[in-house]
Amino acid sequence: MTNMKKSFIYILSAALIFTAFSCDEQLELEEENVLLPEEALVDAEDYEQLLNSAYDVLRGSNGRFLGGQSQIFSDLLAREIDEAGLTGDYEEIYRRNTGFFNGSVSGYYQEPYITTFRANVLLEEIEGVSGVTQSDIDRIKGEAFFLRGISHMDVLLKFAQPYGFTSDNSHPGISIKTEASQEVVLRSTFQESYDQVESDLLQAATLLANGNDRGFGFADEYAAKAYLARLYFYSNLYDQAYEMANDVIENGDASLDSDLMVRFSQGQSDEGVFVMPSLNNQDHRGVGFTNNYRSDVNDPNLKIDSDVYELVASNSDDLRYAWFIVEEEDTADEEIFITKYNGLDYFDMPLIHITELKLIRAESAAILNENLNVAIQDINDIRERAYGSADENLEATASSNSIIEAARLERRIEMVTEGAYLHDVKRIGVLEQSQSVTVGGATWDCNGLLLEFPALETVEGYEGNEPNGC
Description:
Layout: H1 3-21, H2 37-40, H3 44-57, H4 69-78, H5 88-94, H6 103-125, H7 134-159, H8 190-207, H9 221-234, H10 238-251, E1 272-276, H11 287-293, H12 306-313, E2 324-327, E3 335-338, E4 349-353, H13 354-368, H14 372-387, H15 400-414, H16 421-432, E5 438-439, E6 442-443
Antiparallel strand pairs: 1-4, 2-3, 5-6
Helix pairs in contact: 1-6, 3-6, 3-7, 4-5, 6-7, 7-8, 8-9, 9-10, 10-13, 13-14, 13-15, 14-15
């Protein structure tokens, strides 16, 4: 395929997704300026290129999708980031009062739906392409279902109250797009949105069950199951979360790194179950992290809240203490920097990894009060790495409550800057149905913990979130 043809495919996808979001008729494209799908997508190579381009969108321009910005949004809302120095869009998100003109949110919001659009084109067209074997059709469809599923899932976590917020999950979900169409799609219920994400990931796992010979960086059965484990975990469906996490840990290729510092590295980590690989510093998939957190080259845009740091600093034997740099400690000018991304011009971006899955398995087992020996070993594997010894290990007779407490503590420390804590608080709030479950001074069900839909999605009949800044 020529570069000209490739560019037309990319322009077509982006143009259609932009038009689908716009209610201004003047933005409609003239037909002669657009290469139609039947002209752009002719042979098997064209569809492989379109699939690759859908993966490429995951990183987002300047990291504004899964290359950092999605995770940063969650950490801003959870106030895992310090308020000092925040300005503009990030300050607005931190204050939990995002308006629909927030440019960062608007930029983020387009990315998952571009991926979804490209996945939908593949799902609609690939069966009729000549020269593609059935095994390749299954693989391409599996990858497309996976990409659509994780894209919708990320939006669902940011813009909708969690699973269980209403007894029947009839509260508003998100706009679910399952057709390559320019038509505006209004919000589904949460249950409908959840069902679509689950269905896509289950279909991906089934279609990719024979593996993916494209290798590192492309979705396979275990990537789909890992995301299902996360989906079920955040939904308080602990039987299913345990089953999926256990399957990936026991049968997949990923394994726990012995070195704390290599999860975010280039070509050194064994932990990634689904990873966006970076080829060089011009093709860096985690640029949203390095641009905002890296403290060895300039003053970072984002600093860490002291509550997170103190969880580690309270135990001087914790090797994760080296993840933090503190300046002007115990003064009004104190600043805390994260070092996870220092010294890294680029790194492979692990979107889901074995540390997370072991902690999902451990807490799920403890809540179910089953397989406690497995849960204890998962916690101890992580603690022995963190302390360099077994001194902080759980006892073999540890209670379910002790395991739950340990798993939640380790999740918050291990996954600092990875955007998990906000969703942990929400699932715990639903589980305990208690207004005493709070994050950064807000109750778990505060509407301010949601992002507001951007202006490009505000059309007649579309219900927004109206954050209240709580």
